[in-house]
Design goal:
Elements (H helix, E strand, L loop, with lengths): L5 H11 L15 H16 L4 E3 L6 H12 L4 E3 L7 H10 L3 E8 L14 H6 L13 E7 L9 E14 L5 E13 L1
Organism: Algoriphagus jejuensis
InterPro entries: Diphthami_syn_dom, Rossmann-like_a/b/a_fold
Protein name: Diphthamide synthase domain-containing protein
Length: 189
Amino acid sequence: MHGISEALIERQAESLGLRLDKIYYPSSGDNRAYETAINSYLDQLELEGIKHLGYGDIFLEDLRKYREDNLASRGFSAVFPLWKMPTDAAAKAFITAGFKTKLCAADADLIARDFVGKDFDRDFLESLPETVDPCGENGEFHSFCYDGPTFKTPISIVVEKIVQHSYDILLTNGKKGKKHYWFAEIVSA
């Protein structure tokens, strides 16, 4: 859902000095492929003596419970350092700290095309309707962080163009519908 190339994610991890573990699984209409891949990854972590996994979730109770239950069934614990932090304060603190982030994807029904590919900044936050979470916690938008105080060096990027993709979804009334998203095609500069 981010539309970011694997090469950029690798450069991001390198600049942050973080280990990057990649998990590949086929897309499917259910969660089985994801759960199979995660369980295989947990097998690897267990061999390394790792028993805690961190998540950036802030307030989605059902997602937290899902993560905790799945990890607990394998003897792992989930850590949520941002849990229940007010998202408006978290977004402003992130910007104030000096992180530079581009909006790489957004729900076209909620976020104007003009913001996609631009920096996540105070202007963007002030433009958001009250129904959109300032951190995109409900999936309203996604971003790619390319610079900040924890980066060894900034990642030079350019936005080549903005494209729209539509996806078939199942609506709450059981009927099929379409969901539209903007994506910024971000590449190395």
